[in-house]
Write a structure and sequence with these properties.
- Strand 1 (about 15-20) and strand 2 form a beta hairpin.
- The protein is α+β, with helices and mostly antiparallel strands.
- Helix content is about 30%, strand content about 35%.
- The relative contact order is 0.18.
- The longest helix has 15 residues, at about 120-135.
- It is built from 6 helices and 12 strands.
- A 12-stranded mixed β-sheet has the order 1-2-3-4-12-5-11-10-9-8-7-6, with helices on both faces.
Amino acid sequence: MSTHAYLERARQAGLLDEVRGHRYVADLYEDPFTGRRQILVEYCDAGLPADAAGLGALCARLRERHATAESVLLRVPGGAPLPAPWRPRFTYVRHHHRSDTGPAASVGGVGVRPAGPGDRDRIHQWLTMAFRNAYEGHEVDERHPAIRDLMAVPERLSFIAHAAGRPIGHGTVLTDQRDEVTGEEFAELVDILIDDEEHRREAISALVAVIAEATRGRRLCGHVVHPHQPTQARRADAVLKSLLRTDWSVDHAFWENAW
């Protein structure tokens, strides 16, 4: 499967359209955590993000067609920013495997082991905490269906970081995902969360190394959620900049424009 095949399926479904000579694919989408109705533009031609008039025409058309939606989410390849009032919502980053190194047994006193059956409740709690942090102000508890579904995915792999004999965090990856637009298979690093501030940097480094090795041969992608609240947004920006200084680069991002 390829982008060409994706566009053909979108055309057959009546979702492929064009604005100022740029093709795009858009449909309604409801965020499973906020419940907000949005218009997801899952694909656009490469020239549209750089065409300010095109972006304006796109929003005007989509708002007219989908009056109940609150915003547009536009997938933009690479790290090019969009002008205001667009703001980043999700940034997907790609890990660059290094062939000269393997995962260390421990980093700075932090070890990593595969999760076992006895870790399931702890992982569920960490994932709940991660989604609460990403969607502050919204009710997210352990019974949320999206979290239950994530725990039940057959290809989920989780690893436990530990220090001084106690678990301090986890890394969870889905090993068999497919990019709907490009058709490329990839592994998705869903979450890394460390409870221990003292060992956080070492634990993250160790978990990424182990997960990169466990998914070698596939693109490994993670993502950063950009909250709307200014303090949390600055924190997310700092996390992204930190990733980009290491073995990660921007693969694509979703930018949001709310009415």
